Amino acid sequence: MRFHRGFLLLVMLFTLGILAEHTVLPVMEGGDEYLHYNYVQYLLRENHLPERASFLDNSMKQQSGQPPLVYWTAVLLMRLANLTPDDDQALWQRVNDYRNPWYSAPNQWNRLDNRNLFFHEGTQSFETPVIERIDRVIRFTGLIFGLLALMGAYGAAGEIFTDRSWVLVATAVFAFTPQLIHVMSFTNTDSGMIAFTALVTWATLRMLRLGATPGHCLMVGGLLALAGLSKISGLLIVPGVGAALLLDAYKRHRSLRRFMMNGLLVALPLLLFLGPWMLYGYFTFDDPLGTRTHLRPGYYYDTPLNLLEIIPLFREIYLGYWGKLASAVYLHPVTYTMQGTLLVLSGYGLWMILRRFPVRRMDPGDLRTQQTIVLAVIVLCGVLGLIHWMQNIHFITGRLMFQSHTAVAIAITSGLYGLMRRFPKWKCGVQTYAVGIMVAAGVLLTPISIYTAYAPPPMLSHEQVPPLVGKPVNFDQTIRFMGYQQDSPLLEGSHHKLMICWEVLKAASRSAAFSIKLVHDGQIIGDRTSVHGLGRYDSGQWKAGDIFCDRVEVPITGAVENDQTYDILLVMLDAQTQAVDWQATALDGTFIQYPFIGQVVAPAS
Fold first, then answer.
1. CB neighbour list of residue 328: distance below 8 Å, 6 or more residues apart
2. Are 573 and 512 in contact (CB under 8 A)?
3. What value, to the nearest 5°, has the Cα angle with vertex 477 and ends 473 and 483?
4. Are residues 386 and 528 in the same domain?
């Protein structure tokens, strides 16, 4: 396969997107990144796989059962960079000491609100220069596997489309999905799995065209083994390979003996390379697939959900597939909408193709039909696997279907291609739109969203502070509440929005958080606790003279009485002990037992 010059441009943009997010994503803020980091440290120091029986207590937790290929690659990078192993258990202790228990924002669409899972700067940070340097180095595993994935997607698309422009469109849809850019920006097992399943998809489509020779079968089996050694869910692509072998036998009139021999040739590398790891898991923990380490309290539903119960979860699956980043950073709704328009256009195009070539007229011996069947099986198995996990496990995201992402990208592009067969004059415009919005989302909006979610609030001068109401309150003579603004004095909707402004009087000697409560006669109907800066400016970063404001959304959780006035109570607490022990005083030093800063009114019925 020759590489089109446009592909080199995609490679450059893809690399730029990964490196940009690699740079702006704070250390340890990728999904379970500290657990993956600990696995790498353990593997480098001990030079053997972790013992799974201690997964509830060790520093790798549920990742203890993960296959080791990505971690081995990270270890190699550490050795090339001449980095010595760190103490993974010490990092685990620091993680627990500085965990922010209020990291989840009450409104997922407020992308600036309280996203940090950990404190990253200042005297209370759990990080050290050594940890940051190591993590920045091993994150390049994502770039390595990302480039392999890009080659696989490009090759697979080249097997489907004869027009090189559509090959580039399919590759761009694959590469610039924001979630994929994010996965490739830090160390995790998904990156290797996506890379090798993309290569498996390419090799399988190529095998359909050229025939299932022993060399092709061994290559597919070897890539499957590498996918499984990256993450066991990569094996969900195996039925697609099986379908390809069946279709090859049908088209080329293979004997049963030859068909079975091809299957054994595919299975041979799996047994040689993946088999030892599975045997290790079976004999040491009765866990050949490495999934039992996810059997943690709170991970599984007591009773599996039925199909009707998981339907509401698909909204989150859609958002997660396209781009739910870091701990809980969502892209702007417009981004998801523009990506959704691609799906609508593609769906209409696929419907037009099916009208023109209905299933009953498909010939199983035709190459196009065979390619369609194999890709459909790959997508179907990904969907079925996702549904199974949704029924059993909390916190399932759309990226768990990324072993099928190459097939999904080809399907989306095929729909656009079918649409353009009906409206050929729109071809250039639709291709530009498809590539443009994906590049904008993956290369520009993804790192911008990460940066804005983690950047500290802007520091203000006294002249820049907006008009405020409420009496100032000092807390421990360390930080001053200057006043607040409300979007409305009426209590309406599911959240009450207000802006509170702070002035730092001196550097803090301990960690801090603040809590806003809406109360009447001891009844709390709204409560919001957060680290200052809404998770982005913890007390370890404070410097005397700093002035900043927090735009806070207080979720209304209690029963609201009509035509009732509620007091706004502001208290400060120790972020580690959670004790409300920051003493409130007026500017003249008078002690304030209950620092009420204002009121809000529930409208009449």
1. 103, 104, 105, 108, 115
2. yes
3. 25
4. no
Give the pair of three-digit tokens for residue 522: 């001891």
Burial 283-322 (b: 16+ CB within 10 A, else e): eebebbebebbbeeeeeeeeeeeeeeebeeeeebbebbbb
Instruction: For residues 247 and 362, give the distance between their C-alpha atoms in angstroms, rounded to a whole number.
Output: 13
Residues spanned by the domain of 503: 462-601
**Distance from C-alpha of 288 to C-alpha of 578, rounded to nearest angstrom:** 42
Q: Which tokens in the block code for residue 32?
A: 């379970």
* Residue at a domain's end among 395, 420, 451: 451
Q: Which residue has the tokens 């089996």?
A: 221
Q: pTM score, two decimals?
A: 0.91
Residue 535 counted as domain residue? yes
Residue 491: is it exposed, middle or buried by C-beta count within 10 angstroms (0-12/13-18/19+)?
buried
Per-residue pLDDT tens digits for 388-442: 999 998 888 899 999 999 999 999 999 999 999 888 888 999 999 999 999 999 9
Please report which confidence band the pLDDT of residue 123 belongs to, taking 50, 70 and 90 as the band edges: very low
Q: Could you tell me which of 30, 36, 60 has the C-alpha nearest to residue 296?
A: 60
- Mark whether 35 and 62 lie in a shared domain: yes
Helix axes 333-356, 314-323, angle to 10 degrees: 100
pLDDT band at 127 (very low <50, low <70, confident <90, very high): low
Are 395 and 504 contained in the same domain? no
Judgement on whether residues 423 and 466 belong to the same structural domain of the protein: no
Of 348, 355, 465, the residue nearest 417 (C-alpha)? 348
Q: Please give the Cα distance from 281 to 236 (Å, whole number).
A: 19
Chain length of the chain: 605
Per the listing, tokens 């990078």 go with: 77
372 and 403 fall within a common domain:
yes
